[in-house]
Specification:
Length: 464
């Protein structure tokens, strides 16, 4: 039914929009998955931000493929930072004024105020006093240590959210240190890990930001880069890898595809959801590359791929020119064709200071093979469960998560066949620490309960 189709597309786009918004609203910046921030990459030139599409690499197994999620992507042309060392970190005063001081004010200044109280050894409110002294011994340096070690704020005092903790540490360490997220998260299914190398014989192209300039006070910049796919016959996307150039400013990125090229190539501002018909993949801290065991997602000549990057220069790093993006590996249209389907509910009401749940359920109408599942909630999620209830009444778990971290979202490997008559049931649980009701909506203060599924054949409406 066209209406349903429309609704689903809308819900999907909305979901992405909300995710993008939500991620944006806490003023958080990314820590790169699987590696350290790539600190050697500052270039002073090439700040145009034109999308680059760099096609036709031939990738044989074990070939010259040199990007990984850790981003060792060296184009250090006249950069003025040394990679991976503690030299020359002067935390940005502009970033202190624009957001870091507000975090200290909320969580530290009861004790570390202008006049220290309750045994606190010093004030943390004055920028100059924080950065004075020899590097390693300054107050900012001690601050990084106590924050990374979890010693401050003292037990019993309000804790920083993961986003705030990340921002403060990023600021104080010039983007060098990244608190680990998701330590309390346990999943019943393994993370969908792509093999280290792409399959033999595939080709690839990159879509990247092309040296996009990110200023030192940029907290939320949503930028889209779209390119026409460089293929001259139908292909399957076999694998997608994030390219992490300057991980210090990268919050998250995602790729959609516009069928038939309704979106023109170019670079434009795109707060909210990026245009496009189908959603292909998202990268955020903690996400791995994806690779289909066989077959993949469809790519046709004339399609446009849209890369959206959410930039957040929480550390206030100067002179950033970023070339992050995605590497798309494709092969002839052999094997199963996949699509990403979405399930979930917008019926979310979480009363102040309490725990609440929301459920979704649908009945499978077309047999599909499910390969992987990406559960999605926002910051106050605490638990996610997804089951299949077979026609005979038996239950099988798809994936359940105990604990939740908005900053460590992952796609889980959940291979199983779903048959007509099976019911898929999901449940999200939240713990609301706030003094107000939380509901579905666009923002960190709001919540979501979605499950994105890679299925084949590509029937987005397989469960209604
Ligand atoms: C409830 C009061 C209180 C709050 C809130 C608090 N601190 Fe402290 N802080 C102390 C006390 C007391 C000490 C000294 C004794 C100790 O180390 O426990 C201290 C020590 C420190 C030190 C010095 C540690 C060292 O080894 O020299 C740093 C740095 C620090 N706090 C940072 C912070 C930051 C950053 C925050 C906010 C995120 C914060 N504190 C919040 C009370 C507090």
């Amino acid at each position: 039914m066209p209406n349903l189709q429309y609704l689903r597309t809308f819900v999907l786009l909305l979901a992405i929009a909300l995710m993008a918004f939500a991620v944006g609203c806490d003023g958080e910046s990314a820590d790169p998955a699987g590696g350290d921030a790539d600190t050697g990459d500052l270039t002073d030139s090439d700040v145009g931000g034109d999308p680059d599409v760099d096609g036709d690499h031939d990738h044989d197994a074990g070939g010259d493929h040199d990007h990984d999620a850790g981003g060792d992507h060296d184009h250090d042309a006249g950069g003025d930072h040394d990679a991976g060392t503690d030299t020359d970190c002067v935390p940005s005063e502009a970033a202190w004024d624009s957001h870091a001081s507000a975090i200290v004010d909320t969580y530290c200044s009861d004790c570390h105020g202008a006049t220290p109280q309750f045994g606190a050894p010093f004030s943390l409110t004055d920028y100059q006093a924080l950065v004075d002294g020899d590097q390693g011994d300054r107050k900012v340096d001690t601050m990084v240590q106590v924050l990374m070690g979890g010693q401050m704020p003292p037990a019993g005092y309000p804790l920083l959210s993961e986003g705030e903790l990340h921002d403060l540490v990023a600021w104080a360490s010039c983007g060098e240190e990244h608190p680990e997220h998701g330590l309390n998260l346990e999943a019943t299914a393994p993370v969908w890990e792509a093999p280290a190398e792409p399959p033999a014989g595939v080709e690839s192209f990159d879509i990247t930001a092309g040296g996009y300039a990110v200023g030192p006070t940029v907290v939320d910049d949503y930028r889209c880069f779209s390119v026409e796919v460089p293929v001259d016959e139908a292909r399957f996307i076999r694998r997608i890898e994030p390219i992490i150039d300057d991980g210090r400013v990268l919050h998250h990125s995602l790729v959609t595809i516009s069928r038939g090229g309704a979106v023109s190539p170019g670079s434009f501002s795109c707060a909210g959801f990026p245009p496009g018909d189908d959603y292909l993949y998202a990268w955020g801290p903690g996400m791995s590359p994806i690779q289909f065991p066989d077959g993949g997602l469809r790519l046709d000549p004339g399609d446009t791929i849209i890369l959206q990057i959410h930039y957040n220069n929480g550390a206030g790093v100067q002179g950033v020119s970023d070339d992050s993006g995605m590497r798309v590996f494709h092969a002839p249209t052999e094997g199963p064709e996949y699509t990403m389907a979405e399930l979930g509910t917008a019926s979310i009401f979480i009363p102040a200071n309490s725990q609440a749940e929301a459920s979704f359920e649908c009945t499978v109408n077309t047999e599909v093979d499910l390969e992987a599942t990406w559960p999605h909630m926002h910051e106050i999620g605490s638990k996610f469960e997804q089951f299949v209830i077979r026609d005979d009444g038996s239950e099988e778990e798809v994936v359940s998560l105990t604990g939740w971290s908005f900053h460590a979202q992952r796609i889980y490997h959940t291979p199983m066949t779903l048959f007509p008559g099976d019911r898929i049931r999901g449940k999200c649980t939240w713990d609301n620490p706030h003094d107000h009701l939380v509901h579905f909506g666009p923002g960190t203060a709001d919540e979501m309960c979605f499950s994105f599924l890679y299925v084949t054949p590509p029937v987005a409406d397989f469960c209604g």
